[in-house]
Every structure is written in structure tokens, then in C-alpha cells.
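Researcher: Next sequence.
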Amino acid sequence: MEAKIRLRDMQIVRTAKVFRVLGTIGYSRRLIEGIERTRSGAAIFRWMLGYRRSFRTLDEAERAVRPYAKGGHEHPVNSALQFELNQFELNRVAKPSDYAAFYYLRDRIPCIKKIFDMGGNVGNLYYRYRDYLPLRPDAIWTVYDLPDNILRGRALASEKNVDNLQFTDDLQQAEGLDLLIVSGALHYFDKPLPEFIENIKQRPKYILINRSPLTEGPEFAVVQDYAGMIRVACKVYNRSKLVADFKRLGYEVLGEWQAAELGLTVVDRPSSSVGAYTGLWLEQL
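Model: Next structure:
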């Protein structure tokens, strides 16, 4: 059984590579999308591309990749690998898209006491941002993530003698925030962020979204493949709908930028590929 899965995986990976190249050529790109729109063509692509095609929902993508992903985010092997990668990231300078976030945070950081970092892993942003922004002495930065990442994050914070970085797997601790951060994580949540915020009694004054793939077309899901080592499903949200939902809750987008260091290729629908991720700064009016 395992041998069959490995062979099938090899076939999917190689086919996806071919589609990726063809998707960069105008005629081939139009041909791929024309075939994909037909019932028989879509069925053929589903078989050929397996988990590397696009899906309607995050759940569909997660189920498709499960036999090949070693459990995605939750699997200990992937969690350990992510920790090693994040340890390396902690020692790196800010990414280009971080500087846009710094611009909006710079004048507001003295008023920000309570920060909630959704999907913050082991505290990557905390360690990076504190070198660029003077957090107030009584500021508390809370990271929400999976249990394994929480354990590693707490151990790392203890090792570094950091006492204002906390970890939780309880979203209820997001009450009474000054700042909500969702950086590089929005697309891993199936529930849209405005729905989460709508259920908070004391909503955050500021919201920072960064490094998120957004589209102006229909929402869809795909599987990200990190060199065959980590495969996780992600959802591409519609930008206009996201902004409209925030506006309904009383938020205004005061800043928007591109995270050009990141992109997302959709092999069976090349025109839906995301050339650059997006960052948003929102404030409650």
C-alpha cells in the first residue's frame, strides 16, 4: 500500500511540474483552462493532478492531501521540521513586507499593550519585531497555535528569558485586544477572520494581516508543497468580500501592500495564480 502511495505521489509531483511550466506559456495556459472547464477535462485533471489541483473548500483539499502529507500541520514530523526552519528564521532580518507593517505600527506601538498573534508558531514575529519596534514594558504578546508549537514556543521563550511572550490554544483569550496579528496564517483558517472577530465582545482596535494570498475571483483552496517535505492545504479568500465584511464590523482599511516575496501557483487554473501575497492594516473607526 505504501509503495502504491509513493508511486502515485511521484506521478502527481511530476505532472504538476509539467503543468506549472505549461501555465507560463500563453497558448498552453488557455488550453489548460479551456480543458479544465469541460466536465471530462476536469475529471482527467482530477486524476492526473490529484492533490495538486484546485478545490472548492479547504476541507476537500485537506482530505485529498492527507495520504501524502503525513498529517499536515499537526503531524510531529512536520511540526519538528517547521520548528527547525523557524529557528533559522528567528535569526534573520525582517522580510520586505514586514517594513510596511512597521510603518503603520511605528506611531501606534506606544498605545498597544495586548497583542494576539494568530498562527504565530513559536513566536517568530515577536522575536523579529522587537528588534525594530519598541514594545512598551507592560505589553503582552500572546501566540495562538497548535499544541506542539506552543510547547516548543514556551521552551524557546524560557531559554531566551522572555517573560512577555505567552502561548495559548484558546481563542477566548483574544478578548480585549489592542492589536490582532495574522501574518502568514490567514489562508490556513477555514473560518473567515471577520466571522471570528464578530464573536469577540471587545474587538481589537487594530488588525494587521500580512503575507496572505488573496484573489478578486471566486474563493478556492489548494495544497502548498514545501519541497515535498511539508504539504498543507490553504484557502485563497476573495479580497473584496474580506474587506466588505471588515467594513460591516466597523473597520476601515488604512493601508495595503504587496508581499512580493511570496506567490502561489495554481497549476490547473493558471490565471487564478497569486503573483504576490497581500498585507492589510485595518483600524476600528
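Model: Residues 2-53 form one domain. The beta strands are 114-118, 140-144, 165-168, 179-183, 206-212, 214-215, 220-226, 230-238, 251-259, 277-284.
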